[in-house]
Amino acid sequence: MTSMANELRDLYQEVILDHSKKPRNFGELEEPTHDAKGHNPLCGDRLTLALVVKDGLIEDIRFLGAGCAISTASASMMTEALKGKSEQDAEALFGAFHGVVTGSAEDEDDELGKLAVFAGVRDYPVRVKCATLAWHTLRAALADKDEAISTE
Ligand code: ZN
User: Fold this and answer.
1) 55 CA distance to ligand 1 centroid (A)?
2) What separation in Å is there between the alpha carbon of 51 and the centre of ligand 1?
3) Contact 45, 130 (CB under 8 A)
């Protein structure tokens, strides 16, 4: 591994640490139009996601819950990335994110931006579930599924 790659990796870890310590969009959302609960039993991560979607646009999005640094940072960065986006954009971003963290995508997608920091979890199957929990919960919320989702 080159030193550049090491530097990038450290930088990525800093971004994840920052978001896990100071999660963005953390809290209750009054009068959500969509919500869902997610649980990752392998790690114990739990989160509740709430959205206000109007005319196909995600006007607001917040989350509550407790989990490991990866799951919290992922939820924080996901909410940051999705605010103001359309449901179709959210679905596309889910696909790009899923491809990067599972390693099924060859290259990192440019539209992922900072979310590409999670590419590092692809070698750790348990961590992949931590990183994708918020996204699976998002899909359940947008699909209006009432049952709590589980990564298992
Ligand atoms: Zn976790």
Assistant:
1) 33
2) 22
3) yes
Amino acid at 139: R
Q: Domains of the chain by range and CATH?
A: 3-150 (3.90.1010.10)
Report helix, strand or coil for 65: strand
Q: What is the pTM of this model?
A: 0.89
Distance 86 CA to ligand 1 centre (A): 27
Please list the rounded mean pLDDT of every run of 10 residues in the chain (152 residues). 67 89 96 96 96 96 96 97 96 93 75 86 88 96 79 78
Q: How far is the CA of 37 from the centre of ligand 1 (A)?
A: 15
**Backbone dihedral region of 96: left (phi > 0), alpha (psi from -120 to 50 degrees) or beta?**
alpha
